[in-house]
Amino acid sequence: MAEEIKSLEDLNEAVSGTPAAVAEAETPREPVRDALGRAYATGKRKDAVARVWIRPGSGKVTVNGKDQSEYFARPVLQMILKQPFTVAGVDGQFDVQATVKGGGLSGQAGAVKHGVSKALQLYDPSLRAALKAAGFLTRDSRVVERKKYGKAKARKSFQFSKR
């Protein structure tokens, strides 16, 4: 045995490297805001991509220049947009401006939700734990599988006939 480990600090140092590396990993995150006091993030879901800006306000959500209730008419989609604020406990404290392209309405709502979650975490890093625990910071990587040649759809075969 070359060295003996005498304390818990020696064990941490032996496992992770230098004490400076340990201290650096535990430094708190800094808020990321632009000159106008907004936080920006990109959210993605299926084929939809959302660019999202949040800033302190009254809770107004604008998507592609329209109010959220006008753009996402279904109540389920509006509920999806409110989830990050509810989980973080900041209902009605931020205005959201989003532009969304691609996909359908369901994918677009998921993309805006992902973007809002990331932007909230950048605006106030203390909200990260709640958003991460709810799974809102993880990009849902499921996308439509491509169609293969010789198949009716991605995996479905044409009807088999022996004769």
Description:
The chain has 163 residues and is an alpha+beta fold. It has six helices and five strands; from the N terminus they run ααββββααβαα. A hairpin with a 2-residue loop joins β3 and β4 (66-67). The model has no long low-confidence stretch (mean pLDDT 88).
User: What about the largest sheet?
Assistant: 5 strands, mixed
Shape, principal axes of CA atoms: extended
Mean pLDDT: 88
Give the uncertain stretches in residue-range form: none
Radius of gyration: 23 Å
Distance between the termini: 76 Å
Helical coverage, percent range: 25-40%
Biggest β-sheet: strands ordered side by side in the sheet: 1-2-5-3-4
Order of helices and strands: HHEEEEHHEHH
β-strand amount:
15-25%
* Number of helical stretches of at least 4 residues: 6
Oligomerization: single chain
What's the count of strands?
A: 5
SSE class: alpha+beta
